[in-house]
Amino acid sequence: MPDPEVIQDLYRSMLRIRGVEQRISDIYWDDKIKSPVHLSIGQEAVAAGVCQTLEPKDVVFGTYRGHHVYLAKGGDMNAMVAELYGKVTGCARGKGGSMHLIDLEHGVSGTSAVVGTTIANAVGAAYASKLKKMGIVIVVFFGDGAVDEGVYHESLNFAALKNLPIVFICENNGYAVHSPILSRRNSDNICEHARVYGVTAERIEGNDVIAINERVGKAVAAIRSGESGPHLLEIMTYRWMEHVGPGEDFNLGYRTPDERAPWTDSDQIDGLRGQIADDVVTRIDAEVLAEIDAAFEFAENSPFPEPEELYAHVYG
Asked: Which long-range contacts (CB under 8 A, 24 or more apart) does 274-280 make?
């Protein structure tokens, strides 16, 4: 049975992610948020379960659907929400938007709008960690669509060749935008392919936050001790909302409410809530709500960048 404090940590982490994204969904139609949003509602268990196993010095890389990774690793919520608003107090000074989040102080090395790009970045960071004996474990999150990119295969091969301290987290939510895996690949064999390169790989079914936490924790511990090289965890999950935006997309015909229903019925937040004392749940819920209220107030009251900001942090 997991430690009660771990259960509470996981519950708080997932609740923060869900709460922020639900608030984004509520206000998105007012045009206050200045960038497209790819919501991770339904996928909170992946980031929460993984990041709870990491130390502050460890580093994560994410995708355009990266709010959950940023928050789970400890990224500043005020700075994230302000970034979505396009405000100068945002984590990228209002120039990156929802898909480009970064908080180096808390080990968030960045998210990217281009599929697969952060995989190679993460491998480079892992190589640096090994060469400099930094003792840092690198974790890179990506979707099942990214495994069709050449950089993914090159990166796995190099990570195995150099025995790097990296965990590859494939968030398999069933679709690359609207395309299921078997419309893009001959077989459902992500783990099998990874093992061919010499990467230890396993699949975690059911979006189970406790299983994710325990199994990723073992992989991270093995890497940190030098007992094992790179690992890949393919985590089966499901996004509840449309590919991009705060609405639903069942009218597009590629999936149905019935397909989503088992995932919403097994909501990991509800599952953990039932394992925590009522008074503790009440306290955590209130604290998270207050934090979210403060973050959106911070964003509302922050200024937009001045025109000269266009010339700052530009590299030729």
From this structure: 275/7, 276/4, 276/7, 276/8, 276/11, 280/8
